[in-house]
Amino acid sequence: ASSAKEDLVSQLLRVPAPPPPNPLVPPRSNRDELFYSKRKVPSDDAPIRELMDYWRQQSSRYQNLRYMPKPSSRVMDRLRAEIVKDPKSVVGFLNIFNDSRDGAEFVKNIYDNWTDDERDGEGGKERLNTWLSWNSPHHVRQLEKAAQKAGERGEYVTNFDQLVALAKYDWDSARPTVDRLYGDASQPVSRVTATWALYGHALEDNSLGDIDRYRDELKAIVEDKKASAGMRDLAMDALVKEKEWSGRDDWYFTLLEDETLADLRVNGSTYTGLTTIILNSHPDRFADKMIELVKSTNPVVRSAAARNLAVMLDPERPDVIKALLPWLEDPNWATDTNGSRMRVLQALQRVKVPESAPALIKLLDEKETYYVDPNANAANAAATAANTMANAANAMVRASNAVSATSFSASNANSIKGKPVTHYPLRDDAVRALTTQEDMRALPALRRILGETEGYQRGTVVKAIFKCKGYTVAEQANALETMARSARDQMARIMAETGLTEEALRNDLSLARTATNSYITTINDVMSSPQGVDFMLGGELTQVREPGDALIREVIARMSQHEKREPEIAEALRGFLLMWKGPAVNSLFLKDLKDGKADVHSVVKLLSIRKELQEKHSGEVSDARRGGPVQSAIGACLMESEDAYPEILNGDNPEAKAALLGCARLIRAKLPVKEVAKFISHADKRLAAAAESFLESEDSAEARNIVLSLHPNEAKIMGATTGFWPERNQVTVALGDLFDSMPGGSPNNANPILGYLLSASGGREIEGEKPLRDEIKKDTDLVGAYSYLDNVIRIYKDKVAYTWGKDDSRYNERFLSKEEFDRFTGYLSSQNVDEMAPFLDCEQYNCETNQLLM
Fold first, then answer.
1. Which of 62-66, 302-306, 523-527, 740-744 has the lowest mean pLDDT?
2. What b/e sequence results for 477-516 when a residue is b if at least 16 CB atoms lie within 10 Å of its CB, and e otherwise?
C-alpha cells in the first residue's frame, strides 16, 4: 500500500540494503541453458571465461555411463593455465580430467602442494585425494582393501567400482580378486565383473587375443536370454564403457529384435539395458537411426527404438519428440518401459511442438476404471487406498520409476467389484503440456474439463486456458479486480478482528505475517466460490513477468477509474504493476516520479531495473529529474551518474542530499565517505539519518568507525547478514529484484529475499548477539570480546579468557597467554578480517551459517 503519510526519503531509509558481493563467489552467469549444450562445445579460441564456465558445468554434471564431451588438447592447456592461477579451483573441474594420465599428474601436483592454511571450506584436498584414488595410480591403496571384498549380493556386486578402478590402475593388486571371481561359477554376476576387469586390462595392454576373447564372452552374456538381468546389463555396461570397436553399432542394432532385452528388471528396478549405449553416446549419434526404426513394422524393434528416443528427449531435437507423437495418440503403439511414454508427455511441458496439440487434446480423455462397492466399508477403504496408491504410482512414473499407474489400477480392477470409478491418469500432465504449447485448438477441450476438475487442478486448467489465449484482456483485468477486492475485504476483516490500523499492519512484520497467513487460509474457500476462476486467473497473472502492453494499459485505465471512487482498489492494481515488466509499466512509474506521486515501492522497482531504464528510457528519466530536488537525486541513482553525485552532495538542498543517500545505499553507489560524514550531525535530522544509514551500508572500516562514534556505550553491531536491515523494515515486492540487480545477483530470483523478509525476523539480530551486548555494557571490567560459534574470547583489563561450550551451565574456560592472544589477533589482521564482506550465496560450497563478532 502507498497510503503511508511518511515522506518518501524516510521510507527509502527503511528499505533493507543489499550487502557487498561475496569476493569468493564469481559473478553469476546469465547464460542461457543452451550455452551448456553437449552438442555445442565452445571453440578452442573462445574467451577463457566462456571455457571456464562451460567445462566447470560439464564437470559438475558428470555421471558414470553418461556421455560427457572432452576438451581438446588446446582447450585443456588453456584451462590448466587458468587453474594454476587459483589451484583450489581445480575442484570444480576434476571430471574433465577423467581417463587422462596428464590430467591425473596435473591434479596430483596440486594435491602435493596444497597448503595447510589454504581456505578449504568444502574439503577440497580430501576431494582431490578421493578423485586421485579412483582415477590414477596414485592413492589406489585406499581402494585395495575394499576391492578385495568384492562379491555377489543378489543381482549386484559389492565394491564393484573399487575393483574395476583398482584393476585399471594397479593390475597386480587387483589380479588375485579378479581371478577368484572369474573362476567362481557360483557367482555369475561377479564373474561378469571379473570379465569386465580382464577386458579392460587387455585393452590397456593392447593384447589382441585377450581383447577378442573377453569381448566375445561379454557379447555372449548380453545375447544369452537365459542369463539374469543383472548379468546382461553389466556386460552391456562393460562393452559400452570401454573402448569402442569396429562393428559395435551393427551388433547393437541386432539386439533391438530381442524382446527379452527390452525390459531388464529386478525387484522393481529397471536396468538401463539397451539404452546404455544411447546414454553414453553423443546426443545425435543414434537419433536419426532410432527415428527410422520407430517406423518399423516389427513391434519389438519399434518399442526398443521408442524407449531409446525417450531418453534422448531434448529441446534441441524437437524431431525426436515428433517421432514419438503416435505413442501419445495410441498407448499400444509401443510397449511402455520405465515410464517412457510419460517422459514424452513431460518433454512437451518444456518444448513447443505445434504438431503435438491433437495428441495432447486426446490425452485429456484417456481414462481407466477401477471399481468401488459403496455398500461395503471394507471395499470403500480398499478403493480409497487403491486410488491413493494409483495417484502415487502416477507420480512415481513422472519421476521415471518403474511403477505404472495404469498397470496398478488394472491389477486392482478385478479385486474390488462394484461401482465403476473413472480415472484420468495423464490429464494433469497433458494440461501442463498444452500450457506450454499455447495452442488455441485446445480451448474447447480445456473449457469442458474445467467444469470437471476441483481444487488445485482447476488452477492448472485455468493457467492452460490463459496461456492458450482463452481469456480476453477485459476478463484478465476483471480477474485482477476480483483479487484486489478480495484483498481489501480480507484486510478489513483482519483490522476488525485485531483492532489494528492498516498502517500498523503494514509497518509491523510480525503482524504482516499474521495477516498473510490469515489471508492464505481463505484461498481454498475463494477458489470454490463463483469467483474462483477469476481468483485463479488473477493469481496466474501475478506470476507473469511480462503480460503485454494491452493488459498493462487496461489496468492503468482502470486505476484511473477507481482512484476517486475506490482508491484502495486502484492501489491494489498499482501493486500488480509492480510485479510486471514492460515499457508501459516503466513509463507509468517514471511519470509518477516526475509528478511527485511516486511511493517507495515504485522507486525501489525503478532502481531494480535501472540498467533497462538507462538503455531504453533515458529520455524519460531525464524528464523525471526535472520534477524537483528529490526527483533529481533519485534520477541520478537511476542513471548511476557518478558525475551528478558530487553536484548534489555539494549543493544547498538538504532534501536532495537525503534522497541521494537514501537511494545510493540501495544500489551500493560509490560516494566519498569523508564527504558523506559531514552530514551525520546536520541540523536536518532526515539528512543526518540518511548519512548514517549510507555509511552503515557502505561497510568499510572507515565508515563503520564513523557510525560507531555516534553510538557510544551502545555495543552497536555493524556489518551485513543477508543485507543491511533497518530496525523497522519497509516491505516492498520489488526488494528481491533490487537485490538481484546487484553484482552476483541472480535474475528473476526475487522470492528468497522477500520470503526471508516475511518469514524470518526481517532484522539483523542473530541468536547470541544480545547476551554478549548486554554483558559488554554491564561488566565494566570487560573491555572487548570476540565470538564465533560457541567460542568466546573475553578481554579484561588484566587477562584474556577463552570459553567454549553450549551454554552458561556447560562450558570450558582457560586463560590465553599474551603470545596466544597476539597470534590470534595477528591472524585476523593478516587476513584483513575487518575489511571482509559477508560470504553469502555459497550453496555450491556447502557453507554453514556462522558469524564472527568482534
1. 523-527
2. bbbbbbbbbbbeebbeebeeeeebebeebbbebeebeebe
Angle in degrees, CA 75, 78, 79, rounded to 5? 85
Residue 812 bridge partners (DSSP): 804
Q: For 837-848, what is each residue's pLDDT tens digit?
A: 777 655 544 556
Q: Is 41 left (phi over 0), alpha (psi -120 to 50) or beta?
A: beta
pLDDT: which is higher, 239 or 456: 239
Closest listed residue to residue 638, CA positions, set 671, 670, 660: 660
Q: Measuring CA to CA, which residue among 128, 121, 53 is closest to residue 87?
A: 128
Confidence band for 525, pLDDT divided at 50, 70 and 90: low
Residue-wise burial string across 590-612, b where 16 or more C-beta atoms lie within 10 A, e elsewhere: bebbbeeebbbbbbbbbbbbbee
Strands, E assignment, 231-281? 265-266, 269-270
pLDDT at 182 > cutoff 80: yes
* Confidence grade of residue 764 (pLDDT, cut at 50, 70, 90): low
**Residue 178 burial (C-beta neighbours within 10 Å; 0-12, 13-18, 19+):** buried
HSE-up of 63 (CA within 13 Å, CB side)? Answer: 8
- Residues 194-251 have pLDDT tens digits of 999 999 999 999 999 999 999 999 999 999 999 999 999 999 999 999 999 999 999 9
Residues 6+ apart with CB under 8 A from 7: 686
Q: Which residue is it, cell 551448456?
A: 36
Helix axes 208-223, 229-241, angle to 10 degrees: 140
Q: What is the mean pLDDT of the chain?
A: 85
pLDDT of 735 above 90: no
Which region holds residue 582: left if phi is over 0, alpha if psi is between -120 and 50, else beta?
A: left
Query: Quick one: average pLDDT of 308-332?
Result: 95
Q: Torsion angle, CA of 106/112/117/119, rounded to 10 degrees?
A: 30
Residue closest to 425 by CA, chosen among 339, 364, 337: 364
**Separation CA 599–CA 578 (nearest Å):** 11
3-state secondary structure of 802: strand
| Structural contact between residues 249 and 207, judged by C-beta atoms closer than 8 angstroms | no
User: Given this model, what pLDDT does residue 731 score?
Assistant: 72
Q: Which of 593, 591, 585 is nearest to 612 (CA)?
A: 585
Angle formed at CA 685 by CA 680 and CA 687, multiple of 5 degrees: 60
Q: What SS3 class is residue 545?
A: coil
3-state secondary structure string across 615-655:
HHCHHHHHHHHCCCHHHHHHHHHHHCCCCHHHHHHCCCCHH
Cell 528468497 maps to which residue? 752
Dihedral in degrees, nearest 10, Cα atoms 142, 147, 148, 149: 110
Q: For residue 489, what are the contacts with CB-CB under 8 A and spacing of at least 6?
A: none
Can you tell me whether residue 370 is helix, strand or coil?
strand
| Cα–Cα distance for residue pair 35/50, rounded to 1 Å | 9
| Residue from 162, 169, 164, 168 nearest 144 by CA | 162
**Beta-carbon contacts of residue 74 (< 8 Å; ≥ 6 apart):** 44
Q: Answer left, alpha or beta for residue 802, where phi above 0 means left and psi between -120 and 50 means alpha.
A: beta
* Ramachandran quadrant class, 426 (left: phi over 0; alpha: psi -120 to 50; beta: rest): alpha
Measure the CA–CA gap between 25 and 389, rounded to whole angstroms. Answer: 45
What cell does 440 get?
Answer: 488455441
Residue 72 per-residue DSSP state: -
- Of 547, 552, 541, 544, nearest to 584 by C-alpha is 552
Alpha-carbon gap, residue 454 to 117, rounded angstroms: 60
For residue 728, give the nearest of 696, 761, 681, 754 by alpha carbon. 761
